[in-house]
Amino acid sequence: MALLEIRKLTRRFGALEAVKDVSLAIEAGEFFTLLGPSGCGKTTILRMIAGFDAPDEGEILLDGVSLAGVPPERRPLHTVFQSYALFPHMSVAGNIAFPLEMAGKPKDEIRRRVKETLALVHLEEKTESFPHELSGGQKQRVALARGLVNQPRLLLLDEPLGALDAKLRVEMQSELIALQREVGITFIFVTHSQQEALALSHRIAVMRDGRVEQLDEPDTLYSAPANRFVADFIGKINLLDVEVVASSKARLGLRAAGLGEIAATDPRPITVGERGAFALRPELVRVFGRRESADLKNRFEGTVRELLYLGDVTLYKVELADGCVIEAMMPNAAPGRAKFHEVGDVVTVCWRHDAGVYLRN
């Protein structure tokens, strides 16, 4: 049995359906992420799990027991917010001890658990410091420690890294993974950052307009998106409108308007004449100069119109003869590369027949 079950959950605000018939099962010890753009319903679900809001329909069960009517303070979980919500007049130790004091725990137990939790988040030397004396990352660790000190069954994290700068966010991602692995508590994480979700999660539910579009492990979401929205939302991708012109177990032939025929594969039975989209990740596209060659079925000549140097990789935008633009991401340390392709260079973009994914409309 799953630790947390969400069954046919719906929440309305007037005429707006913020959450529409959502069902999820979250396992004990899992790092589970709700991912989606602003307004997709992910924070509303988190608030209903926490007890800050009530569903109009459906139920939430913890260990098979309904949480309906259980107030937030009596639920065995804790929420960590983006704003940290630390008490400015309390020391680090005081902030972490607060939930234990509210629960009426003995002073000796409070001291012991605060000390243990401070060690867990590597803040032993900041025990007597106040929030205004801490960096953003340290404040985030205090908020996490306060959430963990009561040893909740679930830790709910609502955009907890959103207020940090880019470098610190990456550092905190590593710390979150290590922390979750060490304490073994189930994390339910809300974010709109695809990179963050892919880096942290065991499983991700991608949401749009109150519904779950796809629920999968990160690598499946990235390499086998269920539809256009997921493909476009998770990372960079080339999306081409196509028509199926040939279909067998061994081969899928697609025709893209103005581009020509694309060789692909798909094990599903697909009807010739069907229309859909071809999704191709830029890192699976190779760019060759005129004098170079590659034995790949999909080869199209074009001109480099734009390039973006990103340090370890360069993103090329190549315009083909018909005006179609293909993005390709090439490693800058690739062996045998004498120089970058420049804007205006005539090049050939290529990819393997099994590199892309056909998405039905």
What's the short version?
With 361 residues, this protein is an alpha+beta fold.
Summary tags:
alpha+beta; Rossmann fold; six-stranded mixed beta sheet; five-stranded antiparallel beta sheet; 23% helix; 36% strand
CATH architecture of the largest domain: 3-Layer(aba) Sandwich
Structural class based on helices, strands and sheet pairing: alpha+beta
Q: Determine and state the CATH class of the largest domain.
A: Alpha Beta
And the CATH topology of the largest domain? Rossmann fold
Main sheet makeup: 6 strands, mixed
How many individual domains? 2
DSSP strand (E) fraction?
A: 35-45%
Helix content: 10-25%
Number of strands: 20
Low-pLDDT stretches are none
**Mean pLDDT over the full residue set:** 90
Q: Which helices and strands, and how do they pair?
A:
Elements: E1 4-13, E2 16-26, E3 31-35, H1 42-50, E4 57-62, E5 65-66, E6 77-81, H2 92-102, H3 107-120, H4 136-148, E7 154-158, H5 166-183, E8 186-191, H6 194-200, E9 203-208, E10 211-216, H7 218-223, H8 228-233, E11 238-247, E12 252-256, E13 260-264, E14 275-280, E15 286-289, E16 298-309, E17 313-320, E18 325-331, E19 346-351, E20 357-360
